[in-house]
Amino acid sequence: MRLKTLRYYLPLLLLSLLSHRAVAQRAVAENLETFLYRPYYFGFVVGFNSMNFMVHPENAYYTNDSLYTVTARPEYGVHFGILANKRLGNHLHGRLSTVLAFGSRELDYRIKYLDSSYVNTKMVESTFLEFPLSLKYTSRRVGNFSAYVLGGAKYGIDLASQADKKEQTEELIIKLKKHEFSMEMGVGVDFYLPFFKFGIELKRAFGVNDLLVREQTIFTSGMKKVNSKIYQLSFTFEG
User: Fold this and answer.
1) CB within 8 A of 39, min separation 6: which ones?
2) Backbone Cα Rg of the chain
3) What is the spatial distance between Cα 199 and Cα 221, in angstroms, rounded to a whole number?
4) Whose CA is closest to 176, among 216, 126, 213?
5) d(CA 145, CA 20)
6) How far is it, in rounded angstroms, from Cα 30 to Cα 174?
7) Closest Cα partner for 46 from 211, 164, 201, 153?
8) Closest CA to 40 of 99, 93, 98, 97
9) In the 3-class helix/strand/coil scheme, how is the chain assigned residue by residue?
10) Residues 6+ apart with CB under 8 A from 169
11) How many other CB atoms are found less than 10 A from the CB of residue 49?
């Protein structure tokens, strides 16, 4: 009796296992299977940024006895642009971007006044047209997911720079140079969707050249060098 029962249920059990396996295979079916083997692919990027300065003070602030300290504070902005990628190997890709980034930064100057001090805050707004060139190394793909690291260099033009402004105003402004060179590095993850690849990416860029336009004012005399420090959280869409 038990043998007859087993013969009756065994085909049903096998059929159930085969059906479950087929469903599982469909569940992990890879989208865009040949995506990373394309010689070129393109997309666009949108995201948020945090712009800040790295301030390198003079050896001693007391070279100007009216200035105590200079402190940089970040502000937040947005960016968007287009991406072009070139396959260099199984896991290595080159990326060239054109990005328009909006943001601002603040400099807090603590200035001596009589027997006390006060803080004078200067807002510096920037609109960068950036051209990052990066190498992207991607991990082995697992299903519809992969991780990556990237690094490279970036050239930027500050379209809001007032470096060439000659006229004087009652309110002294902080002038930054128009051209900037930076190094950048980042990490990210890619998700392969049915019709495009979606990525989440975090990058940090740190400026190489000094940005400060030096004038004979208290707002530039206390700083030896000023570089950019920018964080970007980006969302990429590539197909």
Assistant:
1) 86, 87
2) 27
3) 44
4) 213
5) 23
6) 53
7) 201
8) 93
9) CHHHHHHHHHHHHHHHHHHHHHHHHHHCCCCCCCHHHCCEEEEEEEEEEEEEEEEEECCCHHHCCCEEEEEEEEEEEEEEEEEEEEECCCCEEEEEEEEEEEEEEEEEEEEEECCEEEEEEEEEEEEEEEEEEEEEEECCCECCEEEEEEEEEEEEEECCCCCCCCCCCCCCCCCECCEEEEEEEEEEEEEECCCCEEEEEEEEEEECCCCECCCCCHHHHCEEEEEEEEEEEEEEEEC
10) none
11) 23
The burial of 23, by beta-carbon neighbours within 10 Å (0-12 exposed, 13-18 middle, 19 or more buried), is given as exposed
Domains and CATH numbers, the chain: 31-238 (2.40.160.20)
Does pTM top 0.90 for this prediction? no
Per-residue pLDDT tens listing for the chain (239 residues): 444 444 444 444 444 444 444 444 445 678 988 888 899 999 999 999 999 999 888 765 445 567 778 888 999 999 999 999 999 998 999 999 999 999 999 998 888 777 778 888 889 999 999 999 999 999 999 999 999 999 999 999 999 988 877 755 556 778 889 999 999 999 999 999 999 999 999 999 999 999 988 887 777 877 888 999 999 999 999 98
Closest CA to 230 of 197, 208, 199: 208
